[in-house]
Specification:
The chain is 35% helix and 15% strand. It is an alpha/beta fold and 378 residues long. The chain has two domains: 204 residues, Glycogen Phosphorylase B (Rossmann fold); 143 residues, Glycogen Phosphorylase B (Rossmann fold, 3-Layer(aba) Sandwich). The strands form two sheets. Strands 3-2-1-4-5-6-7 form a seven-stranded parallel beta sheet, sandwiched between helices. A six-stranded parallel beta sheet has the order 10-9-8-11-12-13, with helices on both faces. The two termini are 23 Å apart.
């Protein structure tokens, strides 16, 4: 069985790239097709990786911002020649699922989400009437491209029930749920009582709603450590009182130590899944989270954390006051996090990939060869 992997881009590192790393561990010989590659942005040595960037890689200024070339990405994935592969695993939050395969091959999409900027949050991404009017035709065209790409998928796998519902709503397709891998072996309780600080680990961008944590900690005069960088940082610093400290980006080892030492992890955004809350629980620490999105699937209300019902400072302040009157068990938090281990992810994904190819498939030499230039159009 020949396997290939597609991913939107490889010039940043986050949750999607952690999934990619696990898939490469499972299928080290599988080539990875992507739009752009910037090795310096990734934590891996890529000497033994077969990464095949698209024509976009050669365009001027692409390394400054791959998003400026978003309209070219549907074409980039359609142009990849994948006829030699039996299964293509497309890890996608945009157009990587839109590849063309042989008629008898399978496109298995591990979907982080249908593109939020096209379907759910486009008003937040495009602010201002003039700008919205200018980009409206482009967004309509990209939505059409996304729908066509979704029709080339044989089987959807979603990272959460939240995303599975979104796939059903936008694409009219069912999706199995396989939660992303979390390195719970690397992050563990340290056996010591927590220090007196709350923790946020996040990109500092508007939809993460870190402003709620900053304002709540300032109002209650609670110590809050914020790990991360992003466009919201100047505004957040203006909102912050003297008990809020911004640490910038820190190493994985230091973040693991902060998880184990914090009083609780604050997760105020509405996320599709959210790896950081699981990492905090792996360290034995509870989570105070907005009660929507993926957090409702990873945090057990009242046992491994607390939910607040609306994204407001007042609601988070009330949740912090409630939290401080309760106690949470380290072992309960840890056992809940273990449900999302990397080994569980690899086991479930291998089963899903194997199910794509019948046990009685004919040998490769006996299969009809696709004519040159012929690819599936669905």
């Amino acid at each position: 069985m020949r396997v290939a992997i597609t991913t939107e881009w490889m010039d940043t590192f986050g949750g999607g790239e952690r999934v990619l790393g696990e898939l490469h561990r499972m299928y080290p010989a599988a080539p990875i097709f992507t739009t752009v590659l910037r090795p310096a942005a990734l934590p891996w040595r890529l000497d033994d990786w077969d990464v095949r960037p698209s024509f976009i890689q050669r365009l001027p200024l692409v390394r400054r911002s791959h998003l400026a070339f978003l309209p070219l990405m549907p074409l980039a994935f359609q142009r990849f020649d994948l006829r030699e592969f039996d299964v293509v695993i497309s890890t996608s939050s945009a157009f990587a699922k839109g590849v063309r395969t042989r008629p008898d091959a399978k496109n298995l999409c591990y979907c982080f989400t249908p593109p939020r900027y096209l379907w759910d949050l486009h008003e937040q991404y495009v602010r201002g009437r003039v700008r919205a009017a200018l980009v409206a035709p482009l967004l309509r065209w990209l939505r059409e491209q996304d729908l066509q790409a979704a029709q080339r998928v044989d089987r959807f796998i979603a990272i959460s029930r939240e995303v599975a519902a979104r796939i059903q709503r936008h694409y009219g397709r069912e999706a199995e749920v396989i939660y992303p891998p979390v390195d719970v072996e690397r992050i563990r309780p340290d056996g010591q009582p927590p220090d007196d600080f709350y923790l946020v680990v996040s990109r500092l961008v508007p939809y993460k709603r870190v402003d709620l944590a900053v304002q709540a900690a300032t109002r209650l005069r609670r110590r809050l450590l914020v790990v991360g960088r992003g466009s919201e940082e100047p505004r957040l610093r203006r909102l912050a009182g003297p008990t809020v400290e911004f640490l910038g980006w820190r190493s994985d080892a230091e973040i693991a130590r902060l998880f184990a030492r914090c009083r609780a992890f604050i997760f105020p955004g509405h996320e599709d899944f959210g790896i950081a809350p699981v990492e905090a629980q792996a360290a034995g620490r509870p989570v105070i989270a907005y009660g929507g999105g993926g957090a409702t699937e990873t945090v057990v209300d009242g046992r491994t954390g607390l939910f607040f019902a609306e994204q407001s400072v007042q609601a988070l302040v009330a949740a912090l006051a409630q939290f401080e009157a309760l106690e949470f068990e380290v072992g309960v938090c840890r056992r809940n996090a273990e449900r999302f281990s990397s080994s569980r992810f690899r086991r479930q994904m291998r089963r899903a990939v194997s199910a794509c190819v019948p046990d009685e498939a004919p040998p490769r030499w006996a299969r009809p060869r696709a004519a040159a230039g012929v690819s599936r159009q669905r």
